[in-house]
C-alpha cells in the first residue's frame, strides 16, 4: 500500500482465489450501518499479489508491433522492435494532448517519424494501426505517390524500411480531463446533472453512492436539505419525472 494508506480491503475484494462471498448489514445503536463481507478462500497472503496483470484491449506493445510488422512483412520489409525511449517520448506527447486530442504533430516529429490517430469508444492501438495500414490501396509504389486526393503517408511510415524502432502511446482526452473541475456544462439547464470526482479506481457506482448518501440530509416533509448540507444530488437520483439516464466517466 502507499505510505500511511490502507489498501487491504481492495486487495481482498479483487483477490483471484476468493470465489465465494457472503455479506450482511445491521443498523447499530448509534444509527449507523455496519456491513461485513466474508471471502472464501481468504486473501491478503503476505508476499502474494491479488491478481496477475494481463494485457487488455489490443493496446500492449506486442499489439502495436504485430500490427506494424504484419504490414511490413506483406511487402517484404523486416520487423521493427519496441523501444522504451521512443515509447516514453510518445507517452509524454500523448499526455500533452489529453485536453483536446488535436491531431497536431509534436515538436519532436522531425527527429522521429510520427503517426497520429484518434477515435471514440474503445479505440485501441491496433485499431489506429489498422487505419494507417488501410491507406495501402492509395499508395502506388512505382510512382512513389499517393492516389489523387488521397493520404498515404501514414501507411508508408508503417512500412518504411529504415524505421526499425517503435514506441506508441494511447491517452484519453476530454475537455474536463485537465482539471476535473466540478462545473456543470452549458447543457445543465436542459438535463438534470450530477457530477463527482474521485481518485484511484473511482467507479460509476461509487459516484452514485456519494449522491445517495445525501439521503440522510434530506427532509421529505419540508422538502429541504439539513442546514449546511447538500442533498440535491440525491433528490435528482430519485426524481420521479426523470425517466432516462446517461452517464460517462473519464480519467
TrEMBL record:
GO CC terms in record: extracellular region
**Pfam family name, one:** CAP
User: Which keywords label this protein?
Assistant: Pathogenesis-related protein, Plant defense
Q: Does the record carry Chloroplast as a key word?
A: no
Cell cycle listed as a keyword: no
Q: Which residues form a coiled coil?
A: none
Q: Cross-referenced CDD domains, in alphabetical order?
A: CAP_PR-1 (cd05381)
Where in the numbering of this chain does the SCP domain appear?
Answer: 59-192
Entry superkingdom: Eukaryota
Q: InterPro entries under this entry?
A: Allrgn_V5/Tpx1_CS, CAP_dom, CAP_sf, CRISP-related, V5_allergen-like
**Job description of the protein:** Probably involved in the defense reaction of plants against pathogens.
Q: Name the PANTHER family for this protein.
A: CYSTEINE-RICH SECRETORY PROTEIN-RELATED (PTHR10334)
What protein is this chain from?
SCP domain-containing protein
Native source species: Rhododendron williamsianum
